[in-house]
UniProtKB/TrEMBL annotation:
One MF annotation (Gene Ontology) recorded for this entry: isoleucine-tRNA ligase activity
InterPro entries: COQ9_C
Domain COQ9 C-terminal: 139-202
Entry EC number(s): 6.1.1.5
Keywords of this entry: Ligase
Protein name: RpsU-divergently transcribed protein
Xref: Pfam families: COQ9
Amino acid sequence: MSILPEKLEQALSLAVATLAVGVMPAPMERDEDRDAALRKLAAVAGERGWSMETLKSVAGPDADLLFPSGVVEMVEAWSDLCDRTMIEAMLDTDEPRLSQRVRQAILLRLPPDEKRRAAAVRGMAVFLSIKGQKAFRRAWLRTVNAIWQAAQDDATGLTYVSKRLTLGSLYASVFLYWLARGSDVAGFEAFVDRRLADVLRIGRIKARFGTGIFTPAASAAAR
């Protein structure tokens, strides 16, 4: 299923803009049955799509009862599951540099898994529908926040908001690259590194004027 690049870029721009509010959406309903059903569905969603029929075929005839709000809820819940999986994988990191912990989190959130990437492409088609756009913005806010959580950042106040705005813009470009060319692992990692380097470079400049990106003194934290 193809996605119009212009529509996707517009949706990403709107999602990033919502980060300026600094208020995260409420957590989604979570339980083991929903997670198990989502894992089964995501394994085939790239080929068969996100639908109640596919869900019931892989997770049982009553699996649709797990998602009473329909397909959009399913895709939003899957995004939330991916966020939580990333956070759990980062719990034992011993990387001392914040920028590198952010890098690790991004690469975990967007892995070189073709089934995962194909499922994300089909999921974006759901998110870009009229009924899915608000859900997409909520999911985007949660993911950006989850990356900072995974990176073990504890910023508050204006720094909290500015960091999420910065990461939201960076993650938008990284996400687009991953959707289009994520199968090239080395190329994708190099792209992430370039984007992080750009952000850190700007952060060092801003730090001279008393503001930063990854921390109030961005250059120090990045070392």
